[in-house]
Structure formats: structure tokens, C-alpha cells
Write a structure and sequence with these properties.
The chain is 29% helix and 29% strand. It is an alpha/beta fold and 155 residues long.
Length: 155
């Protein structure tokens, strides 16, 4: 959904990605520059990964990273169950000025088995309207801005 939003609402962007599903969506935007990272193709994730990918990410300085994650908690921050994705996510976080996570309500208050980063490394979480007011308040107190379609209801 995020990639479709970018295509529909932005005229020009440069996007660096390892996700081939995202590339397929972004190809519709004629004025976007899409940089596809090199590395090893992962059939399950339909993405490029590996040490070369991590190294290439770290060679960039991004204004903004937009990352999809599987679990977010106040205590552990971002955690992940896909070992191949952990260092990719860490590299994007390290290379970005602003870090944004996209996660639906079901990813909140969950902990997966691999630690990625603390909650303090995130600037924004973009989610759906099912995130509760209480969750928004808790994460906001930790310094993370939460954006949802109903955010006006909480201000």
C-alpha cells in the first residue's frame, strides 16, 4: 500500500529498494528513479539480500527510510523473525536521517525472536485505524510519532 501511495501522490522521487514487489509497483511512476540493490535473490521474500546488499545500503545517505516490520514493542523496539532481513533493516536504519516503520495494528505490542533496534531509533510509525488510542499515547511518550487515518481523533 505504501508504494501505491507514493506513486499516486508524488511526482518525483528517488527510491532505493531490495524488494522486487515494490519495484513492480514503482515502475508505473515515470518520473521516479528506482535503484535496485544488488545481492542474492530470495525467492520466499521476492527480494534481494545478503552481505553485498547490506554493504551497498551502507554506501548511501538516505533522507528517509520506510521499512515494513513484523513486530513492534515498547520494551524491545523492532524485532524480526526473518534472520535474512535483520541486517538489511539495520543497514537502512543506520543510513537514514529519518526512520519510518509501516506496520498494521497487529504488529503492535508483539515481540519476535531477533532484536533489530530500540524504539528510540524510530521517528514515525505509519499504521492503520485499528491502533488504539492507548497504544498511540504509549508509543508517543517514547518519542515515536504515530500516523493513522484517524489520528485527528487522538489530538
Amino acid at each position: 500500500e505504501t508504494a501505491n501511495f507514493l506513486v499516486e501522490n508524488y511526482k518525483r522521487l528517488t527510491i532505493v529498494t531490495n524488494n522486487l514487489r515494490i519495484v513492480d509497483i514503482l515502475r508505473k511512476a515515470e518520473n521516479f528513479t528506482v535503484i535496485v540493490l544488488g545481492g542474492v535473490f530470495d525467492r520466499e521474500e521476492y527480494a534481494i539480500g545478503g552481505k553485498e546488499t547490506e554493504k551497498e545500503i551502507l554506501s548511501y545517505n538516505f533522507d528517509l527510510s520506510i521499512l515494513a516490520v513484523n513486530a513492534i514493542s515498547e520494551k524491545k523496539g523492532i524485532t524480526e523473525f526473518r534472520p535474512k532481513e535483520v541486517n538489511i533493516i539495520k543497514a537502512f536504519l543506520q543510513s537514514s536521517k529519518t526512520n519510518v516503520v509501516v506496520a498494521d495494528y497487529s504488529k503492535f505490542d508483539r515481540i519476535s525472536y531477533i532484536n533489530v533496534c530500540g524504539i528510540e531509533q524510530l521517528d514515525y510509525i505509519i499504521s492503520d485505524s485499528n491502533v488504539t488510542k492507548e497504544q498511540i499515547e504509549r508509543y508517543t511518550k517514547r518519542g515515536v510519532k504515530i500516523c493513522t487515518p484517524k489520528i485527528g481523533d487522538y489530538n
